[in-house]
Specification:
By secondary structure, this protein is α+β, with helices and mostly antiparallel strands. The protein contains 3 helices and 7 strands.
Length: 160
């Protein structure tokens, strides 16, 4: 079959050849026959809850003049399942949240809550007194208080 010349192309074929993006829309690509939207979110947010096989507790960090306070939400975890460790100026919160459901014959099941082991690590600032850390667990919330060290006062050295 002979190759067509530019003059033998129809007007729409000539326009498409001159502008490869003519007629392209992002919506057609996302919602077209292969519907890329679910894959798009998986690519943008790869570690989503149970889908990633791991979960990580939500954490808030606050600071005032005397201390740092770290609060972690651990619903469904027990006090004995949570461990806090400070080593080489890094604080690590580890634990496990277990699923305690009975096995029954079910027609279907949708699970959005995450279970399994977790670990979060934080590098402590130089002003944190890592040797005086306190942790408390109540109603599924872990509260860790890290007192601040007293700021070293500059020593005035007389010049002779």
């Amino acid at each position: 079959m002979a190759e067509r010349t530019a003059s033998s192309l129809t007007r729409s074929e000539q326009k498409a050849a001159s502008d490869p993006f003519e007629g392209w829309t992002p919506f057609r690509e996302l919602f077209g026959p292969s519907w890329r939207l679910p894959r798009f979110f998986d690519e943008m947010f790869p570690a989503r809850g149970a889908h990633a096989g791991r979960w990580s507790p939500a954490v808030d960090i606050a600071e005032d003049d005397q201390k740092y306070v770290i609060t972690a939400e651990l619903p469904g975890a027990g006090k004995d399942d949570v461990h806090v460790e400070v080593h080489d100026n890094v604080m690590t919160i580890r634990g496990e949240k277990r699923s305690e459901r009975e096995e029954k014959k079910e027609q279907s099941r949708w699970v959005e809550r995450s279970y399994g082991s977790f670990s979060r690590s934080f590098t402590l600032p130089a002003s944190a007194a890592a040797d005086r850390v306190n942790a408390a667990f109540k109603d599924g919330v872990l509260t860790i208080e890290l007192p601040k060290v007293e700021a070293a006062k500059p020593k005035v050295v007389p010049v002779r």
